[in-house]
Amino acid sequence: MKKRTSASTWLLCLCGLLAMGSLLGGCGAERTIHRLRAANFQQERTEGVTTSVQARALYLQVSPGGGLTAESIDAANRMLTSQGPIRRQVLTIVALSPAGEKLAPRLAKTLTDAGANPPRRGAYEVEAGAGSAPAEDLTRQQQGWDIELISEAVVVNAPDCTVAQPDLWTVSPYYAIGTLGCANEANIAMMASDPRDLIRPRALAPTEGKIATSAVERYFNDETKELIDIDFGEN
């Protein structure tokens, strides 16, 4: 067998070094491209769907007829709708005036009839006393209002899935739109019947074991049964 000359050996070593240099240079170029892309182009949205406990409060006024004013009814409907299904909200009614004290039971019944859990009754107590500065500040804040309605609920906060950069729509549609999975994630979150399902598994209800195993028992122990043959042509 003919031995390789020293020239051919050096040639092979040179080719290997060149190949390794090209490989390392390619990796460096790729990293440079990634850095340029991150510095000059729209990045993916980092915000996602979050689930949290949200408390909202609303002051309401009683009309001369004894019910709530139209403005108060509209505001209450908007707040309760923004908190999700009313049956999953914890509601508290705080009477702030004699008129509100009279209307509070009727409001609680109306909310219960609409599907809410029976609202709780609340009251404000200032530790410093009725004549203290905190008590006077609270009185000024509540002056002119008759009822405070408080809603606490677990709500879903979905990200804003509008076009990320509207000014680039005709120039670079891909980067202008932004993350395409945002809308899908937000839609799934908004369709959840219970927002808590997004943060923890739901326990299965108890099952009847006998019913679950009856099909297997019939397969092994019972006889084959003929399917019912119905002739719809007969009278």
The quaternary organization reads as single chain
Q: Radius of gyration in whole Å, from Cα?
A: 35 Å
User: What's the rounded overall pLDDT mean?
Assistant: 76
Strand order of the largest sheet: 1-4-2-3
- Given as residue ranges, the uncertain stretches (5+ residues, pLDDT < 50) are none
Shape: flat
CATH class of the domain at 54-154: Alpha Beta
Kindly summarize this structure in a few lines:
InterPro entries: Pilus_biogenesis_CpaD-related (IPR019027), Pilus_CpaD (IPR013361). This protein has 235 residues and is α+β, with helices and mostly antiparallel strands.
Topology:
Blueprint: H1 6-40, E1 50-60, H2 70-82, E2 90-95, H3 98-113, E3 120-122, H4 133-142, E4 147-157, H5 173-177, H6 181-190, H7 209-221
Parallel strand pairs: 2-3
Antiparallel strand pairs: 1-4, 2-4
Pfam family, one: Pilus_CpaD
Region (Disordered): 112-137
Protein name: Pilus assembly protein CpaD
